[in-house]
Design goal:
The chain has 745 residues and is of the alpha+beta class. The protein has 3 domains: 184 residues, Roll (Nuclear Transport Factor 2, Chain: A), CATH 3.10.450; 174 residues, Penicillin-binding protein 2a (Domain 2) (Alpha-Beta Complex); 208 residues, DD-peptidase/beta-lactamase superfamily (Beta-lactamase, 3-Layer(aba) Sandwich). The strands form 9 sheets. Strands 6, 7, 8, 9, 14, 24 and 25 form a 7-stranded mixed β-sheet that branches. It has a 5-stranded antiparallel β-sheet with strand order 16-15-29-28-27, sandwiched between helices. A 4-stranded antiparallel β-sheet has the order 1-2-3-4. The N terminus is likely disordered.
């Protein structure tokens, strides 16, 4: 009898939440008295109780049981279902129901039903009751299901049957108490209908990625194949798998059902289609797959698609996708995955084991994917890629492992080109490669085993010593802090020895220079002194200005993966060396050595700040998104910070940078001397030669912006372990600028 007490107590605790208020205090006292009599002694004559729920069949309540007990058991059972308490539910089943369904099967069925529906919660409400004789009662009720799959739906006028086991009401349970059709062997099935993935375009509408790759699914019905052995051997040859595996795939299906045997590339299908139809009576289902039109031109920007990782599957399924869905894995494909993939339509139904539908419980419509338009200019990207590639080929192995280039609009942050060398064909890294699995695997092995690390996006993720292109930041810090004035000069003898003897790249030094002239000449000893004085004033001064200009901090590009680089401080040096910070660290940093690691993207940001008069814009790679010409998103320039430096100081800095390409003493004057750019447009910039021990050759840098008046773009080029920036990076920058402004190569 304790089960009846438990059910009744649970009912009393929760009936106010799930049932209508149907009785007075007096009636409840009568009910409690009746229950106590049932628990403690034999049946006695009692005053009849009126049912609280409407009854479909008026009957006389036997003296040894009443409808309150039955209602309490039903309410307790449904409450425990709501709480996913399978053991408590099972305890309320009749003895015959428990014998027919072991607990493990009972719990597994409810658990799998919850998982299939992706159930969040449920609510129930009793509606009516009926009696069949003295030992059977039927309750009519509604259940509202809240799911992560199809939202909320209500299953109305459900029936649950109770029987008297001895003197206690129990649930006469069957799978139909989950959903009625499950009593007939029906199974819950949740289907996902993902939309076709969106395309990716360049800023001018040139298509870069689409879903026009082609795979073909082979399907057969075993009992409709005349020569099964011949068919199995043919399928094994086409799919390049053992015949035993083909047989296993057939065995997993009813011989009268259409069975999926495997996937083949479109070109393989073209060869084998007629033979498969003739021998296997095969049917086919075309599958559209991802395709990168220019596979090796933008892999570091666009990225690739693939299957989700194991730890991502719960989140992926919650979004309506299957475990085998193709989603963004890197680059724009990952950063804008939700836009590109859309939202699947979902259908929850009950079907027979053979898939025949029995009942539709609910469905949601497909939310179409959107296309993404990049800020990238395809023609410019192609040109920059070609220029870098030509330089490495021409070096005949004299250059290091790779290089990178970034072209960015200084007034908006739009990235017009982002190239990392060496590159690779992204088509090989997707689940259904357009070139076929065999060729794709060869490419993958080559890329993975290449010591140059082609998959590294050097432009956004590379971490390099900056060399002399750091001197611009040092000059700004020296002037803005008040440590230097624009008229102040330093006499360079070619040697600086406040800590150890340090020599300039120019033997004998550069003579007397102000800071603008020091930038033009790229005077090392001038900036050793600047670093020393800044550190004496405040050891955090130079690192702080570097951070303000985007170095050693998040570059702000949200579309793809990036590196923050590193700018050391007295606090962080302990992570590098056991010795404490000293002015020597600031001296090294002042010329871009020591605790300085930057990416080409970060240097593009820093020089854009100089070019546009002090505004740090967020770098962006996505121009707009939309569907069929209706744009939902348009890029807007976003200011990250504004440099608290006067226009006079920035004008002064720009004068030094512009002289780099025009003054006879400028480190890149000989590179731009005969360029048609210099007639009406003008180029300003800075060379950099960054030591990279233990490699004997330094990295070559050049950062340039143009036009000289009202700058529009900044170009950053790095060639790893190649030599001087003026010799190797500046000529490439010149070619890029000439192509951009003049259309010349």
């Amino acid at each position: 009898m304790w089960l009846a007490d438990s059910a009744y107590n649970s009912y009393n605790e929760h009936r106010v939440l799930y049932c209508e208020d149907k009785s007075s205090v007096k009636r409840w006292l009568l009910v409690i008295g009746l229950i106590l009599c049932l628990v403690g002694c034999a049946p006695q004559e009692t005053e009849p109780l009126h049912a609280q729920l409407p009854t479909r069949i008026p009957t006389i309540t036997p003296s040894y049981n009443n409808m309150y007990d039955a209602e309490a058991v039903v309410t307790a059972f449904l409450y425990h279902w709501q709480q996913a308490e399978w053991e408590a539910m099972y305890a309320l089943l009749s003895e015959s129901s428990q014998q027919a369904t072991p607990y493990d099967s009972f719990a597994a069925l409810y658990q799998s039903s919850h998982e299939t529906m992706r159930l969040q919660s449920l609510e129930f409400a009793l509606r009516a009751q009926a009696r069949e004789g003295n030992r059977i009662m039927i309750f009519v009720y509604d259940v509202t299901f809240h799911t992560n799959s199809i939202g909320t739906f209500t299953d109305q006028n459900r029936e649950i049957r109770l029987v008297l086991d001895g003197e206690a009401w129990r649930i006469a349970w069957s799978p139909g108490d989950i959903f009625r059709q499950m009593a007939e062997g029906g199974l819950l099935r949740l289907e996902s209908f993902p939309p076709l993935r969106g395309n990716i375009y360049d800023r001018n509408g040139e298509i870069l990625a689409d879903m026009n790759g082609r795979m073909v699914k082979i399907l057969v019905i075993e009992n409709q194949i005349e020569d099964l052995d011949l068919c199995i051997n043919t399928l094994a040859q086409v799919l390049e798998i053992p015949a035993e595996e083909v047989q296993n795939r057939l065995n997993r299906n009813n011989p009268d059902w259409l069975a999926e045997i495997g996937l083949i590339e479109g070109n393989v299908f073209d060869v084998w289609e007629s033979a498969l139809v003739e021998i296997c009576n095969a049917q086919f289902d075309a599958i559209r797959t991802r395709r990168y039109i220019y596979g090796d031109l933008l892999p570091h920007v666009i990225g690739t698609v693939g299957y989700p990782e194991a730890d991502e599957i719960p989140q992926v399924e919650a979004a309506g996708f299957r475990q085998d869905s193709i989603l963004g894995r890197s680059g724009i494909e990952r950063g804008w995955d939700e836009t590109l993939r859309g939202t699947p339509g979902m259908r929850l139904s009950i079907v027979r084991p053979n898939g025949e539908p029995l009942r539709l419980l609910g469905e949601t419509p497909i939310q179409p994917s959107q296309s993404v338009y990049l800020t990238i200019d395809l023609d410019l990207q192609r040109f920059v890629t070609g220029v870098l590639s030509e330089a490495f080929v021409a070096s005949e192995g004299a250059f290091g492992d790779g290089g990178a280039a970034v072209v960015m609009n200084v007034n908006t942050g739009e990235i017009l080109a982002m190239v990392s060398y060496p590159t690779y064909n992204a088509n090989a890294f997707i689940p259904f490669p357009v070139m076929g699995q065999e060729q794709a695997q060869q490419i993958i092995e080559q890329v993975i085993n290449d010591p140059r690390r082609p998959q590294l996006n050097r432009a956004a993720q590379g971490r390099y010593p900056s060399g002399s292109i750091m001197k611009t930041i040092t000059a700004i810090a020296a002037l803005a802090s008040g440590e230097y004035t624009m008229d102040e000069t330093y006499f360079s003898t070619g040697v600086w020895n406040r800590d150890i003897p340090r020599v300039d790249w120019l033997a004998g030094g550069h003579g007397r220079l102000n800071l603008a002239g020091a930038l033009t000449h790229s005077c090392n000893t001038c900036f050793y002194e600047a670093g020393y004085r800044l550190d004496n004033r405040d050891p955090y001064l130079l690192p702080t200005y570097a951070n303000m200009m985007g170095l050693g901090v998040d570059p702000g590009l949200r579309d793809i993966e990036t590196s923050t680089g590193f700018i050391g401080t007295p606090d962080t040096k302990i992570n590098w060396h056991p010795e404490p910070w000293s002015y020597s660290d600031a001296v090294n940093m002042a010329i871009g050595q020591g605790m300085v690691e930057v990416s080409p993207l970060q240097m593009a940001e820093a020089y854009a700040i100089v070019a546009n008069n002090g505004v740090r814009y967020r770098p962006q790679l996505v121009l707009s998104t939309g569907l069929l010409g209706e744009m939902d998103y348009h890029m807007q320039p976003e200011v990250l910070t504004t440099l608290d430096v006067s226009t006079d100081i920035l004008d002064y800095i720009r004068s030094g940078l512009c002289a780099v390409t025009t003054d006879r003493s400028g480190t890149a004057e000989f590179v731009f001397r005969n360029s048609p750019l210099m007639e009406d447009i003008g180029v300003c910039g800075k060379t950099g030669t960054a030591q990279n021990p233990p490699n004997p050759k330094p990295h070559a840098w050049f950062v340039g912006y143009a036009p000289r008046e009202n700058p529009e773009i900044v170009v950053v080029v790095i060639i790893e372990n190649s030599g001087d920036g003026s010799a190797h990076a500046a000529p490439i920058t010149r070619r890029i600028l000439e192509y951009y402004f003049l259309g010349e190569d």
